[in-house]
Amino acid sequence: MTFPVVDTNVLLQLAPMLVLLLAGLVFMMAGAFTRRAGAFQRSFVIVFHIVVLVYVIKLWSVEASPILNGMLIVDRFSLFFTALVTLCALGTVLTSAHYLDRFGMNRGEFFSMLFFSTMGMVVLVSALDLISVFLGIELMSLAIYILVAFRRRDFLSNEAALKYFLIGAFAIGFFLYGVSLIYGVTGSTNFGDIAAAVAEKGLARNPLFLLAIALILAGLGFKVSSVPFHMWTPDVYQGAPTPITSFMATAVKAASFAAFVRLFYMCFMTSKDQWVAIIWVLAVVTMTVGNVVALVQRNIKRMMAYSSIAHAGYILIGIAALSVDNNNAASGIMFYVVVYAFMTLGAFALISAIEKKGITRGLEEPDYSGLGLERPFLGFCMAAFMFSLAGIPPTAGFFAKYYVFSAAVNEGLVGLVIIAVLNSALSLYYYLRVVVAMYMQRRDVPVPVDADLGIRIVLLISLLAVLWLGFGPSGVVPGVEDVLEWTRTSLAKVNGLGM
Amino acid sequence: MENYLWVITFAPLAGAFVNGILAVSFSNSQRSVNERLVSFIGCVAPLISFVTAVGIFFHLRGLPESERLVVQTLFPWLVSGELHIDFALMVDTLSMVMVLVVTGVGTVIHFYSIGYMAKDDGFARYFSYLNLFMFAMLVLVMAKNLPVLFVGWEGVGLCSYLLIGFWYKDINNAAAGKKAFVVNRMGDFAFLIGIFVLFAVTLRLGHPTLDFLGVRELISEHPDAFATTATVAGILFFIGATGKSAQIPLYVWLPDAMAGPTPVSALIHAATMVTAGVYMVARLSYVYLESPVAMAIVATVGAATAFFAATIGICQKDIKKVLAYSTVSQLGYMFAAVGVGAYAAGIFHLMTHAFFKACLFLGAGSVIHAMSGEQDMFKMGSLGKKMKITSVTFVIAALTIAGVPPLAAFFSKDEILWNVFTAGVGPAWLPGFLWAILFVGAGVTAFYMFRAVLLTFYGERRYTDEAAHHLHESPPVMTMPLIILAAGSVVAGFVGVPAVLGGSNWFHHYLEPAIGPIAHHAAEVAGHATESAVHSAGGETHASHGLEIALMVLSVLVGVIGILVAFRLYLHKPLIPGRLAERAKGLYQLVYNKYFVDEAYEKTLVKPGYQLSDKLCFRVVDVWIIDGIVNGVGVFARLFGSAVRLFQTGLVRTYALFFLLGLLYLIYRLVG
Asked: How far is Cα B75 from Cα B87, in angstroms, rounded to an integer?
């Protein structure tokens, strides 16, 4: 028997996915033979993540080209997002140590599912073909469905998972329908071939092609929780175990936007005149509904869910501002998801530390009363994340918005930016309410906080990131320039391939 | 050596930081802070600055005269479009004089404070503020450009506010601090606009800059482009100076500022901060030299303030108030000097004033300390017997301010009078008129100063037996600074002995490179309405030496007459003043109540301003319009949120329905 010839270069480029796959399998087995995932297993989880990151660094300088018959590409754009989702997963793992024990779900399968989901995201961000986009989404989502339901005996958790699953299946159906239409019109599912066929056959205004875009947009809009495809978000974010909520808000959103950017950038730019108006409307309703409904939320996880919807709206502004002439909007989006990931991970880390069993579950506003005065470090971190989420300088949240908005202004989308700025002002109300509770309200018994080492590490790193990424305008912080520079090179490459 | 400029400014900042932390950490605890540690940190910080400044001084001396300049850029600060501003420090000969005065006198006063503030609850807080003040003041005098100077300018204002209201538990002190801050802000506003005006012109010339050297270069190259700007900017800058340096019409805060601890009055409200305006005018000499109008205004306001404040000083009962009005008056002399283009004379008087006025204030502080807080001179008298060192140093400083030769102010005040007399500013009658005002003012100064000396230290005893029980000479940590400053008042004048008395006026030549237009342009500018300035800067005189000596003798005479009148009225015939006050009751009341200027401001500005704020800005604009909009948006948003929430039924079929409707909308917009 002869083995097919394996190209070691391709294997190297697949290494992050393979490591995640291996890790997923290992912990599936571990879950079968151990009752509880202790410090030993947990340290292995961390090691696997670090290995992935090491491979990302190793691959950074490798020349990228499509692999596996053009199904995937491991370029700097995908590596950037691979690193980001891996960091988000790592943050989730660090956040979850005591949390899993507290709610009796500390099992190896938890990590196994986390690894499979992360692997799905890596496939998604590296996808260069609609089929691999579909595969990535499904792998990511199936694992997430299970993770959402991980508190098996909790009613909310089960309800959330079922809702997510049903609506998710509904949405992916439309997505697939769109993919089949694309194949019907262009004769290919490969990004490069689609773009070439559109240019060749002049399909930019073809009704079937536009119908396909609408269907795919609905599918992706579901993943990034854009209004009106968002309605599952608050229920699922509330019901899921908090570290998983954090993972969904950061990693799932980042990976989906990566696919969003690459697909729209490479395949649909010629039809931009058609779809930009829709994205405009989607962005406006998404951020407005997100912010306005967040105002009336009492449960902090639901509030963060609507906040996450609002931020999806801001990022959609970047999609509307995508342009073939420059990468401002794309780099703005990339910077935005990184900043959003850090501030959200940090905020959810603290939320999981405070969450407890009981009637209110430690998720209402009064549960944060006096926290800033009793636990200065935790309070300061939370305040910084809230200010950053609201976009107050000099935190990173301000500059994230600034880059996206300025790209939009350059594209002439002034009205959209004005609405977005008004929305930001509105969002101050509910973010600052948390700060007010922490610093200006008192209660007799101190807040019970279970902030273990992992949570403290996540808080500290997120805090440093939020401050460092935001401390000054470009030129003062070299890191920002670097991130933007990476994006530019990466997207230039995508550009060169696609157009 | 230029690499050490930052040490001068940042040593006090570090001291302020450390003492600030100590103050905060001990603020709520039962134990009191270790005073030795605090005073060590608080005094070593300015001492380091002083030693470094002396090092820079000798470094500068080693350089050729035209290159006496060291610059250190710390970091790029504001970069935006065509605007590029570095946080940069610069020391030229003008800054050098200021740095030496600030750090030298400042260090002495820091040491004095150890004794004066002993056992005060806010000991660490006091030293923290005082060090912070040193930092801000040094940034002000070492700034390389206007924005950095403005940082220092605002910083000293802040520290002044904090220290005036240092004993904030008394509402009067807090109110005095607030008054100082608000009045200063009015001046600062004009100052800021002046900066913008200047920047606008440099931008139009294609060299956007706010750097002192850059502006100087530009003005030297394009004097015509600055013709009107110089007047506008010069006046705006001077309005800023009237706030900071307590000139008409914004002087009213300084007498109230005496609510702060006395060493603060000595350091901030006599020796250093209030002279910032004089320094600023000298620093921007090249702007003022382009505008005869602005110069005339500066000189006139200065002379008017000098006379006006001196007359108020005659009737004050509070020893610190006398010194406060004296400071306002002396600052007026300095402005008169820089207004007529005699920058060296103005800065010279600034330096000598720092010595004798700090000495007077610290002496007053020593008296107040001994009298357990009593400040009314009519409850003192014959203290000289018990407080030998204090009284002797006080008398020396008083003789200095009266202009008795060969003490320091004799040289500096005389130089001002001579320069004003021979100035070419404004209409032909103006210099003579200003000289006359200042001349009479000098006599009044001598009078009120010796009135204070005699009432406090000599004559009959008017204090109670209980006060006598506590009365004591201050400890050495307070008397040593008095001796040092008195010695300074005696000798400081010798650096500027004028040519007519056989001196070389070293001080004058030392400052030359930093003043006026750049040397190689000076010749072109000479015919450009700045004749007087150039001649006074160059020390050339048209008038004869005989006239100069005659004026000198006259001014010494008027000083001596003032002293003798004081002796007559307050030592030999102590009943006369009361009778005089009886006879000219209206005039006495007018002067005693400081010409009712505070009351007039209260009626014309403060009250209407308050009414405007309350009736219009608060009740209408704030409550109705702004709150209305904010609350309206809030109510609307919450209603909208509650409405949208209704769709969030929790039912999957609703979610799917909305999904479908959304999709149909997308398809309709895209395909339809």
From this structure: 5
Q: Touching check for A422 and chain B: CB below 8 Å?
A: no
Nearest CA in chain B to A222: B659
Residue B165 corresponds to which amino acid? G
| Cβ-contact A172, A138 below 8 angstroms | yes
Smallest CA-to-CA distance from B239 within B179, B178, B194, B182 is with: B194
Cβ-based burial of A282 (10 A; exposed 0-12, middle 13-18, buried ≥19): buried
Instruction: Give me the residues of A, 27-56, that contact B with CB < 8 A.
Output: none
Farthest-apart Cα atoms in chain A, separation: 75
Q: How far is A475 from chain B (nearest CA, A)?
A: 10
Longest dimension (CA), chain B: 109
How far apart are alpha carbons B450 and B568 in whole angstroms?
Answer: 11
Parse chain B into domains and list their residue ranges: 358-592, 602-671
Chain B residues with CB-CB distance to A302 below 8 A: none
Run of H or E including B85: strand B83-92
In A103-228, where does DSSP find H-type helix? 108-126, 130-148, 155-186, 191-201, 207-223
The verdict on a CB contact (< 8 Å) between A292 and B634 is no
Q: How many CA atoms lie within 13 A of B200 on its CB side?
A: 11
Closest-CA distance, B653 to chain A, in angstroms, reads 9
B363 and B262 in contact (C-beta within 8 Å)? no
> Look-up: residue for tokens 């000596």?
B549
Could you tell me what percent of chain A has a pLDDT over 70? Answer: 93
Task: Provide, as residue numbers in chain B, all residues whose Cβ is less than 8 Å from the Cβ of A426.
Answer: 633, 637
- A5 confidence band (pLDDT: 50, 70, 90): low
B143 with B266: CB under 8 angstroms? no
DSSP label at residue B80: E
Q: Per the structure block, which two tokens stand in for A81?
A: 């997002």
Place of tokens 């997505």: A175
Q: Do A218 and B662 touch (CB under 8 A)?
A: yes
Average pLDDT over residues B12-32: 84
Give the minimum alpha-carbon distance from B288 to chain A in angstroms, rounded to a whole number.
37
Q: Kindly state whether B642 is in contact with chain A, defined as any CB-CB distance less than 8 angstroms.
A: yes
Which residues in chain B touch residue A210, judged by CB atoms under 8 angstroms apart? 670-671
Element housing A127 (H / E): none
Residues A302-322: pLDDT tens digits?
Answer: 999 999 999 999 999 999 998
Q: CA-to-CA distance for B28 and B22, rounded, in angstroms?
A: 11
With an 8 Å Cβ cutoff, is B662 touching chain A?
yes
**Within an 8 Å CB–CB cutoff, is residue B671 touching chain A?**
yes
Interface pTM (ipTM) of the complex?
0.87
Q: Distance of CA B442 to CAs B304, B410, B447, Å? A: 13, 11, 9
Residues of B in contact with A177 (CB under 8 A): none
pLDDT in tens, A461-492: 999 988 888 764 443 333 344 445 544 555 55
**Chain B residues touching A223 at Cβ < 8 A:** none
A496: CB partners within 8 A, 6+ apart:
none
Contact B9, B69 (CB under 8 A): no
- Whether B540 shows a pLDDT value over 50: the answer reads no
Beta carbons of B477 and B351 less than 8 angstroms apart: no
How far, in Å, CA of B27 to CA of A138, rounded?
Answer: 61
Distance of alpha carbon A151 from the chain centroid: 22
Q: CB distance A211–B667 less than 8 Å?
A: yes
DSSP string, B162-221: HHHTSSTTSHHHHHHHHHHHHHHHHHHHHHHHHHHHHHHHHHHTT----BHHHHHHHHHH
Tell me whether residues A166 and B667 touch, CB distance under 8 A: no
**What's the rounded Cα separation, in Å, for the pair B267 and B429?**
38
B357 C-beta neighbours (distance < 10 Å), count:
29
| Number of C-beta neighbours around residue B662 at 10 A | 22
Q: Which residue of A has its CA nearest to B671?
A: A207
